[in-house]
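Recall that a protein's primary structure is simply its ordered list of amino acids. Everything else, from secondary elements to tertiary packing, is in principle encoded there. The following example makes that idea concrete.
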Amino acid sequence: MGRIRIAACQIDTVVGDLEGNVERVLESLAEAERSGADLAVFPELAVTGYPPEDLLGRPAFVLDSERAFARIAAGSGACAAVVGHVARDGAGRLVNAASICAQGGVRATYVKELLPNYGVFDEQRWFAPGPGAPAPCVVAGIPVGITICEDMWVEGGPMLSQVRAGARILVNLNASPYSRDRRDERLVVLRDRVSETKCPIAYVNQVGGQDELVFDGASLVMDAEGTVVASAGQFVEEVLVADVLIAEGSETSGHGRLDGSASRAPESHSRITVSEGPSRAAGMPVNHPMARMLEPEAEVYGALVLGTRDYLAKNGFTDAVVGLSGGIDSSLVAAVAVDAVGSEHVHGVTMPSRYSSDGSVTDAEALAGNLGIEFTTVPIEPAHRAFATMLASLVGGEPTGLTDENLQSRIRGVVLMALSNAKGWIVLTTGNKSEMATGYSTLYGDSAGGFAVIKDVPKTLVYDLCRYRNRQATAPIVPGSVLGKPPSAELRPDQRDDESLPPYPELDPVIAGYVEGDRSPDDLIAQGHDPDVVARVVQLVDRAEYKRRQMPPGVRISRKAFGKDRRMPISSRYRSTPVPEPQRPTGETFVV
């Protein structure tokens, strides 16, 4: 019986930090060596970080990345390492590669065959596809097939080709971004590939935040029966070590199994021997960790925390400032910020106006106290009056209506950005996906800032996440009065969100269907949504495109977030709704 010990190195790389990424790889490789691993597998494009985007258009960056990868190859030892990196093919074209390195050199290189070009992926812009399955690499006497991310997702694709070339275990390098329910989808695809190839698979994913994207890790080893036998945690760095047992068998039955009922596939390629058996793991027992997978709300919350933490750290910020309105959105953003960088690095500012309720101010203060963050009150009435006087001659009297409402929001934006300039703090905006979709925000006001933590979180989920966070604490963090009050921007007397928008339980499913599902209004109506609500929401979403282009980046948690995923033209006369557009209610805050 053969055995190979795999170390799945789930690391948090930084795009463009070539030296830092080299150190991360070498440190994890050293840990894998100490564990007795035969093969350490790293994420896709671990050397450059993923996605490097148009850095790949700079020849100097490509050359520097090649030099960085050479350092990793030179630092390899008895434990072979499969490392994702940028390379060039025989025609000089850039390729997305994975090389197996051992004893100070490169032994073989695989080039990604299937290049995704949808959603957040744009790989055909940068890379040429690989030529097909190379010869398998023998590690600890076991033929290993190497594939990269998208190669796993296609039936009859590169994984099957690897097995037909003689591989008896498959490793798959990934930079697979998080979205809700993504792990379950991966498990289905992995089981499909196991069923197709009859081989165990080691799936290795990167972890960490990169601009809008969050990578959740969740690396795993799946046996030839489709059972997960070892798994790494979500949203944490980890070196997952597991043994894969492959029995000797006939030349005609099966391929490779963890339970010992394995056999050999027909081979049409010459093997590249990296290391003969037996495994380095002989006499070194290892546990097969099984990380507890997070519940849905915990998973989303973890993504928000990691995305915020990494955005601040990777862009040189230590502290964040949040405008606390006493509402649910700013409460969630403040809680996420504290869990990301610590209460001593988060600063809350409440900026009451003439229309702010006493409860909003006391709720903001209570939240800050519960979180243990610095809290400051800056009334905006002096600035509000000064602007009203200054603008009176221009607008024919003191500003009223929408002009006055948005003026207040912009004054608050000025206060927060002044603090950012003076203190070096990043401003975390507090708008959610429901507001961003419908344009229920003020340009250069509540939308002004450096990072939009909950821009992809619909309002109904905001409430769920606040309740989840409260359950994790010994005492509630978000005051019950915040959870119970009707949502309001408090920009005019007795204002409520449901005067300007459909109730959020009705609004959010329509947004999800139209934005994330690309459903037509007719589809949504056929699903049972109110025709008037559908027409109104579609109109608002289409009209707000110009606003969304000016919003800061934020954490992506859905299959289609505003930003990288969805690229709609601003100037467009196409209207997808066949039903009459509804009359716009008085007081809607949707325009600049």
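The two ends are 70 Å apart (CA to CA). Confidence is low (pLDDT under 50) at residues 249-269, 584-592.
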